[in-house]
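Collaborator request log, item 7. Partner lab (contact: R.S.) asked for a structural prediction of Riboflavin biosynthesis protein RibD to inform their binding assays.
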Amino acid sequence: MSLPEDKKYMQRAIQLAEYGRGYVSPNPLVGCVLVKNGEIIGEGWHRKYGENHAEVNAIESVTDKSQIPGCTAYVTLEPCAHFGNTPPCANRLVEEKVKKVIIGHRDPNPKVNGGGIKILKEAGIEVEVGVLEEECQYQNRVFLTNMELDRPFIVLKWAQTSDGFVARENFDSKWISNTLSRQQVHKLRSEIDAILVGYNTVYYDNPELTTRDWPGNNPVRVVLDPRNELKDKRLKIFNKKANTIIFNSSENLVDGNIHKIKLEDFDPSFVLERLFEAGIRSVLVEGGSITLGRWINTGEWDEAHVYISPVTFENGIPAPIIAGQGKLQKEKQIENDIVQFWINN
Ligand code: AOF
Ligand code: ZN
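Returned to partner:
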Protein backbone atom coordinates (compact mmCIF):
# COMPACT_ATOMS: atom_id res chain seq x y z
CA MET A 1 0.00 0.00 0.00
CA SER A 2 1.40 3.36 -0.91
CA LEU A 3 1.33 6.22 1.56
CA PRO A 4 0.65 9.87 0.62
CA GLU A 5 4.28 10.46 1.45
CA ASP A 6 5.40 7.89 -1.10
CA LYS A 7 3.34 9.63 -3.77
CA LYS A 8 4.87 12.95 -2.86
CA TYR A 9 8.44 11.71 -3.31
CA MET A 10 7.53 9.83 -6.48
CA GLN A 11 5.95 13.01 -7.83
CA ARG A 12 9.28 14.76 -7.21
CA ALA A 13 11.12 11.91 -8.97
CA ILE A 14 8.80 12.32 -11.98
CA GLN A 15 9.52 16.05 -12.03
CA LEU A 16 13.28 15.38 -12.03
CA ALA A 17 12.97 12.74 -14.77
CA GLU A 18 11.28 15.31 -16.99
CA TYR A 19 14.51 17.37 -17.16
CA GLY A 20 15.97 14.61 -19.31
CA ARG A 21 13.36 14.99 -22.06
CA GLY A 22 15.05 15.65 -25.38
CA TYR A 23 18.46 14.42 -24.19
CA VAL A 24 18.18 10.72 -23.30
CA SER A 25 16.61 8.97 -26.32
CA PRO A 26 16.53 5.99 -26.89
CA ASN A 27 16.60 5.62 -23.11
CA PRO A 28 13.62 6.25 -20.86
CA LEU A 29 13.15 9.29 -18.62
CA VAL A 30 14.11 8.34 -15.08
CA GLY A 31 14.19 10.31 -11.83
CA CYS A 32 15.34 9.24 -8.36
CA VAL A 33 14.93 10.68 -4.88
CA LEU A 34 16.67 9.36 -1.73
CA VAL A 35 14.83 9.90 1.53
CA LYS A 36 16.04 9.38 5.12
CA ASN A 37 14.02 10.14 8.26
CA GLY A 38 11.45 12.09 6.26
CA GLU A 39 14.00 14.27 4.47
CA ILE A 40 15.31 14.28 0.94
CA ILE A 41 19.05 13.60 1.12
CA GLY A 42 19.74 13.11 -2.60
CA GLU A 43 18.19 13.68 -6.01
CA GLY A 44 19.14 12.73 -9.52
CA TRP A 45 17.88 12.04 -13.00
CA HIS A 46 19.16 10.46 -16.19
CA ARG A 47 20.52 13.58 -17.88
CA LYS A 48 21.95 12.40 -21.14
CA TYR A 49 22.12 9.21 -23.20
CA GLY A 50 25.30 7.25 -22.42
CA GLU A 51 25.82 8.95 -19.07
CA ASN A 52 24.92 7.93 -15.49
CA HIS A 53 21.51 6.57 -14.71
CA ALA A 54 19.20 8.41 -12.31
CA GLU A 55 20.04 6.30 -9.25
CA VAL A 56 23.78 6.91 -9.56
CA ASN A 57 23.28 10.66 -9.96
CA ALA A 58 21.04 10.67 -6.87
CA ILE A 59 23.65 8.73 -4.84
CA GLU A 60 26.43 11.02 -6.03
CA SER A 61 24.42 14.11 -5.07
CA VAL A 62 24.49 13.16 -1.37
CA THR A 63 27.07 15.28 0.42
CA ASP A 64 27.33 13.15 3.57
CA LYS A 65 27.59 9.60 2.18
CA SER A 66 27.18 8.08 5.66
CA GLN A 67 23.48 9.00 5.41
CA ILE A 68 22.85 6.64 2.50
CA PRO A 69 22.70 3.24 4.31
CA GLY A 70 19.14 2.71 5.53
CA CYS A 71 17.54 5.28 3.23
CA THR A 72 14.57 4.76 0.88
CA ALA A 73 15.05 5.23 -2.86
CA TYR A 74 12.14 6.39 -5.01
CA VAL A 75 12.76 5.60 -8.68
CA THR A 76 10.27 6.22 -11.50
CA LEU A 77 11.50 3.07 -13.33
CA GLU A 78 12.71 -0.33 -12.13
CA PRO A 79 16.48 -0.07 -11.52
CA CYS A 80 18.42 -1.77 -14.30
CA ALA A 81 20.02 -5.19 -13.96
CA HIS A 82 22.41 -5.15 -16.91
CA PHE A 83 25.84 -3.89 -17.88
CA GLY A 84 25.11 -1.41 -20.67
CA ASN A 85 26.71 2.00 -20.97
CA THR A 86 26.87 1.85 -17.17
CA PRO A 87 26.92 -0.96 -14.54
CA PRO A 88 23.58 -2.19 -13.07
CA CYS A 89 21.83 0.32 -10.81
CA ALA A 90 20.21 -2.48 -8.79
CA ASN A 91 23.71 -3.66 -7.70
CA ARG A 92 24.70 -0.12 -6.79
CA LEU A 93 21.63 0.30 -4.56
CA VAL A 94 22.55 -2.99 -2.84
CA GLU A 95 26.17 -1.85 -2.33
CA GLU A 96 25.01 1.45 -0.88
CA LYS A 97 22.85 -0.48 1.63
CA VAL A 98 19.60 1.22 0.71
CA LYS A 99 16.82 -0.17 2.91
CA LYS A 100 13.79 0.16 0.63
CA VAL A 101 13.23 0.83 -3.06
CA ILE A 102 9.92 2.24 -4.28
CA ILE A 103 9.43 1.90 -8.02
CA GLY A 104 7.04 3.68 -10.40
CA HIS A 105 6.85 1.02 -13.10
CA ARG A 106 8.58 -2.12 -14.25
CA ASP A 107 11.15 -1.85 -17.05
CA PRO A 108 9.92 -3.94 -20.03
CA ASN A 109 13.41 -3.89 -21.60
CA PRO A 110 14.19 -7.63 -22.00
CA LYS A 111 17.59 -6.95 -20.38
CA VAL A 112 15.82 -5.81 -17.20
CA ASN A 113 12.18 -6.95 -17.08
CA GLY A 114 11.97 -7.84 -13.40
CA GLY A 115 15.69 -8.57 -13.10
CA GLY A 116 16.36 -5.38 -11.16
CA ILE A 117 13.57 -6.13 -8.69
CA LYS A 118 14.95 -9.66 -8.25
CA ILE A 119 18.47 -8.42 -7.43
CA LEU A 120 17.09 -6.01 -4.84
CA LYS A 121 14.82 -8.57 -3.18
CA GLU A 122 17.51 -11.23 -3.08
CA ALA A 123 19.73 -8.78 -1.23
CA GLY A 124 17.00 -8.35 1.39
CA ILE A 125 15.87 -4.92 0.22
CA GLU A 126 12.18 -4.14 0.61
CA VAL A 127 10.66 -3.38 -2.81
CA GLU A 128 7.36 -1.79 -3.75
CA VAL A 129 6.28 -1.45 -7.36
CA GLY A 130 3.50 0.71 -8.79
CA VAL A 131 3.52 4.00 -6.89
CA LEU A 132 2.07 6.60 -9.32
CA GLU A 133 2.46 3.87 -11.92
CA GLU A 134 0.13 5.44 -14.49
CA GLU A 135 1.88 8.81 -14.24
CA CYS A 136 5.30 7.17 -14.62
CA GLN A 137 4.12 5.09 -17.57
CA TYR A 138 2.58 8.14 -19.21
CA GLN A 139 5.87 10.01 -18.85
CA ASN A 140 7.64 7.08 -20.51
CA ARG A 141 5.06 6.49 -23.25
CA VAL A 142 7.70 6.84 -25.97
CA PHE A 143 9.99 4.23 -24.40
CA LEU A 144 7.10 1.87 -23.62
CA THR A 145 5.74 2.11 -27.19
CA ASN A 146 9.24 1.36 -28.53
CA MET A 147 9.64 -1.67 -26.29
CA GLU A 148 6.16 -3.07 -26.74
CA LEU A 149 5.46 -2.35 -30.42
CA ASP A 150 8.97 -2.17 -31.93
CA ARG A 151 8.19 1.10 -33.67
CA PRO A 152 8.74 4.80 -33.04
CA PHE A 153 6.20 6.80 -31.06
CA ILE A 154 4.24 8.96 -33.51
CA VAL A 155 2.97 12.47 -32.88
CA LEU A 156 0.91 14.24 -35.53
CA LYS A 157 0.89 18.02 -35.54
CA TRP A 158 -0.82 20.61 -37.64
CA ALA A 159 -2.16 24.16 -37.43
CA GLN A 160 -5.57 24.94 -38.85
CA THR A 161 -7.93 27.86 -39.21
CA SER A 162 -11.11 27.88 -37.14
CA ASP A 163 -13.05 27.07 -40.34
CA GLY A 164 -10.94 23.94 -40.87
CA PHE A 165 -8.17 24.69 -43.39
CA VAL A 166 -4.44 24.01 -43.16
CA ALA A 167 -3.49 26.11 -46.21
CA ARG A 168 -4.96 28.30 -48.92
CA GLU A 169 -5.69 26.80 -52.33
CA ASN A 170 -2.22 27.88 -53.56
CA PHE A 171 -0.75 25.88 -50.57
CA ASP A 172 0.18 29.07 -48.72
CA SER A 173 -0.05 28.15 -45.03
CA LYS A 174 1.67 31.17 -43.53
CA TRP A 175 0.27 32.92 -40.48
CA ILE A 176 -2.22 30.44 -39.17
CA SER A 177 -0.97 29.99 -35.60
CA ASN A 178 0.53 32.75 -33.45
CA THR A 179 4.20 33.29 -32.50
CA LEU A 180 3.90 31.66 -29.07
CA SER A 181 2.24 28.59 -30.59
CA ARG A 182 5.04 28.28 -33.12
CA GLN A 183 7.54 28.49 -30.26
CA GLN A 184 5.66 25.68 -28.53
CA VAL A 185 6.11 23.59 -31.67
CA HIS A 186 9.85 24.22 -31.51
CA LYS A 187 9.83 22.92 -27.94
CA LEU A 188 8.01 19.82 -29.16
CA ARG A 189 10.62 19.43 -31.92
CA SER A 190 13.42 19.62 -29.33
CA GLU A 191 11.87 16.69 -27.47
CA ILE A 192 11.53 14.37 -30.42
CA ASP A 193 14.02 12.35 -32.51
CA ALA A 194 12.73 13.17 -36.01
CA ILE A 195 10.32 15.45 -37.90
CA LEU A 196 8.69 13.98 -40.98
CA VAL A 197 7.11 15.90 -43.87
CA GLY A 198 6.05 15.17 -47.41
CA TYR A 199 7.59 16.62 -50.58
CA ASN A 200 4.89 19.28 -51.03
CA THR A 201 5.59 20.82 -47.64
CA VAL A 202 9.29 21.18 -48.51
CA TYR A 203 8.48 22.57 -51.94
CA TYR A 204 5.77 25.05 -50.96
CA ASP A 205 6.90 26.13 -47.47
CA ASN A 206 10.69 25.63 -47.62
CA PRO A 207 10.75 24.88 -43.86
CA GLU A 208 14.02 24.53 -41.94
CA LEU A 209 12.52 22.04 -39.46
CA THR A 210 14.86 23.03 -36.63
CA THR A 211 14.29 24.11 -33.03
CA ARG A 212 15.68 27.61 -33.51
CA ASP A 213 13.07 29.17 -31.19
CA TRP A 214 13.77 26.80 -28.29
CA PRO A 215 16.96 25.54 -26.61
CA GLY A 216 17.80 21.88 -27.22
CA ASN A 217 18.76 19.50 -29.97
CA ASN A 218 17.58 19.62 -33.56
CA PRO A 219 15.73 16.48 -34.58
CA VAL A 220 16.58 14.55 -37.73
CA ARG A 221 14.62 15.94 -40.70
CA VAL A 222 12.82 13.29 -42.72
CA VAL A 223 11.30 13.96 -46.13
CA LEU A 224 9.20 11.58 -48.22
CA ASP A 225 10.08 12.08 -51.90
CA PRO A 226 8.61 9.10 -53.78
CA ARG A 227 8.87 10.78 -57.20
CA ASN A 228 12.49 11.93 -56.67
CA GLU A 229 11.61 15.60 -57.12
CA LEU A 230 13.79 17.00 -54.36
CA LYS A 231 16.74 18.53 -56.19
CA ASP A 232 17.07 22.22 -55.36
CA LYS A 233 20.01 22.36 -52.90
CA ARG A 234 19.00 25.86 -51.82
CA LEU A 235 16.04 24.41 -49.91
CA LYS A 236 16.57 24.85 -46.15
CA ILE A 237 16.26 21.14 -45.36
CA PHE A 238 19.65 20.73 -47.08
CA ASN A 239 21.43 23.16 -44.72
CA LYS A 240 23.98 21.83 -42.25
CA LYS A 241 21.97 22.62 -39.12
CA ALA A 242 20.63 19.08 -38.79
CA ASN A 243 20.79 15.68 -40.45
CA THR A 244 18.25 14.95 -43.16
CA ILE A 245 16.93 11.60 -44.33
CA ILE A 246 15.29 11.63 -47.75
CA PHE A 247 13.21 8.57 -48.59
CA ASN A 248 13.16 8.26 -52.37
CA SER A 249 12.59 5.58 -54.98
CA SER A 250 15.92 5.73 -56.83
CA GLU A 251 19.05 5.62 -54.65
CA ASN A 252 20.83 4.97 -51.36
CA LEU A 253 23.42 7.66 -50.76
CA VAL A 254 25.25 9.38 -47.91
CA ASP A 255 26.44 12.91 -48.63
CA GLY A 256 27.55 14.69 -45.44
CA ASN A 257 24.43 15.32 -43.35
CA ILE A 258 22.11 14.14 -46.14
CA HIS A 259 21.14 10.46 -46.18
CA LYS A 260 19.08 9.20 -49.08
CA ILE A 261 17.29 5.93 -48.46
CA LYS A 262 15.63 4.00 -51.27
CA LEU A 263 12.15 2.66 -50.56
CA GLU A 264 9.95 0.46 -52.72
CA ASP A 265 6.82 1.17 -50.76
CA PHE A 266 6.04 4.46 -49.00
CA ASP A 267 3.36 3.01 -46.79
CA PRO A 268 3.77 4.56 -43.28
CA SER A 269 4.59 1.17 -41.73
CA PHE A 270 7.62 0.69 -44.06
CA VAL A 271 8.82 4.23 -43.44
CA LEU A 272 8.55 3.72 -39.68
CA GLU A 273 10.35 0.40 -39.85
CA ARG A 274 13.33 2.02 -41.61
CA LEU A 275 13.37 4.93 -39.16
CA PHE A 276 13.28 2.55 -36.20
CA GLU A 277 16.22 0.63 -37.70
CA ALA A 278 18.05 3.95 -37.99
CA GLY A 279 17.62 4.45 -34.20
CA ILE A 280 14.73 6.91 -34.34
CA ARG A 281 12.41 6.40 -31.39
CA SER A 282 9.90 9.22 -31.85
CA VAL A 283 8.60 11.00 -34.94
CA LEU A 284 6.68 14.23 -35.31
CA VAL A 285 4.62 14.13 -38.51
CA GLU A 286 4.30 17.81 -39.37
CA GLY A 287 2.63 17.79 -42.73
CA GLY A 288 1.25 18.45 -45.10
CA SER A 289 -2.32 17.35 -45.33
CA ILE A 290 -1.62 14.43 -47.71
CA THR A 291 1.09 12.97 -45.48
CA LEU A 292 -0.93 13.50 -42.31
CA GLY A 293 -3.96 11.96 -44.01
CA ARG A 294 -1.94 8.89 -44.94
CA TRP A 295 -0.85 8.41 -41.32
CA ILE A 296 -4.37 8.88 -40.04
CA ASN A 297 -5.73 6.42 -42.61
CA THR A 298 -3.44 3.65 -41.42
CA GLY A 299 -4.15 4.46 -37.78
CA GLU A 300 -0.36 4.52 -37.15
CA TRP A 301 -0.21 7.38 -34.67
CA ASP A 302 -0.16 7.82 -30.91
CA GLU A 303 -0.81 11.49 -30.24
CA ALA A 304 -2.01 14.50 -32.22
CA HIS A 305 -1.43 18.16 -31.39
CA VAL A 306 -3.82 20.44 -33.28
CA TYR A 307 -3.31 24.20 -33.20
CA ILE A 308 -6.54 26.04 -34.00
CA SER A 309 -6.31 29.74 -34.77
CA PRO A 310 -9.17 32.25 -34.92
CA VAL A 311 -8.15 33.05 -38.54
CA THR A 312 -10.58 31.95 -41.27
CA PHE A 313 -9.71 31.12 -44.92
CA GLU A 314 -13.20 30.29 -46.24
CA ASN A 315 -11.69 27.81 -48.68
CA GLY A 316 -8.42 26.00 -49.21
CA ILE A 317 -6.82 22.67 -48.25
CA PRO A 318 -8.99 20.95 -45.63
CA ALA A 319 -7.53 19.96 -42.26
CA PRO A 320 -7.24 16.26 -41.39
CA ILE A 321 -10.01 14.76 -39.28
CA ILE A 322 -9.17 12.43 -36.40
CA ALA A 323 -12.32 12.62 -34.31
CA GLY A 324 -13.30 9.06 -35.30
CA GLN A 325 -9.95 7.57 -34.21
CA GLY A 326 -8.86 9.72 -31.34
CA LYS A 327 -10.00 10.91 -27.98
CA LEU A 328 -9.61 14.57 -27.02
CA GLN A 329 -7.42 14.47 -23.92
CA LYS A 330 -7.02 18.16 -23.14
CA GLU A 331 -7.18 21.66 -24.54
CA LYS A 332 -4.88 24.56 -23.86
CA GLN A 333 -5.09 28.22 -24.77
CA ILE A 334 -1.99 29.92 -26.19
CA GLU A 335 -2.96 33.58 -26.51
CA ASN A 336 -5.72 33.49 -29.15
CA ASP A 337 -4.94 29.95 -30.37
CA ILE A 338 -6.38 26.77 -28.92
CA VAL A 339 -4.25 23.61 -28.84
CA GLN A 340 -6.00 20.27 -28.69
CA PHE A 341 -4.16 17.14 -27.53
CA TRP A 342 -5.63 13.93 -28.92
CA ILE A 343 -4.62 10.38 -28.15
CA ASN A 344 -5.31 7.41 -30.39
CA ASN A 345 -7.96 5.05 -29.05
C1 AOF B 1 17.80 2.72 -14.69
N1 AOF B 1 17.97 4.03 -14.47
O1 AOF B 1 18.17 6.13 -15.17
C2 AOF B 1 17.76 4.48 -16.78
C3 AOF B 1 17.51 3.10 -17.00
O2 AOF B 1 22.44 1.94 -22.41
P1 AOF B 1 22.32 2.06 -20.95
O3 AOF B 1 23.38 1.37 -20.17
O4 AOF B 1 22.15 3.51 -20.51
O5 AOF B 1 20.99 1.30 -20.52
C4 AOF B 1 19.78 1.71 -21.04
C5 AOF B 1 18.64 0.86 -20.52
O6 AOF B 1 18.61 0.94 -19.09
C6 AOF B 1 17.29 1.37 -20.98
O7 AOF B 1 16.86 0.74 -22.16
C7 AOF B 1 16.39 1.02 -19.81
O8 AOF B 1 16.01 -0.34 -19.84
C8 AOF B 1 17.31 1.24 -18.64
N2 AOF B 1 17.29 2.66 -18.25
N3 AOF B 1 17.52 2.27 -15.94
O9 AOF B 1 17.92 1.92 -13.77
C9 AOF B 1 17.97 4.94 -15.44
N4 AOF B 1 17.82 5.37 -17.80
ZN1 ZN C 1 20.44 1.81 -14.38
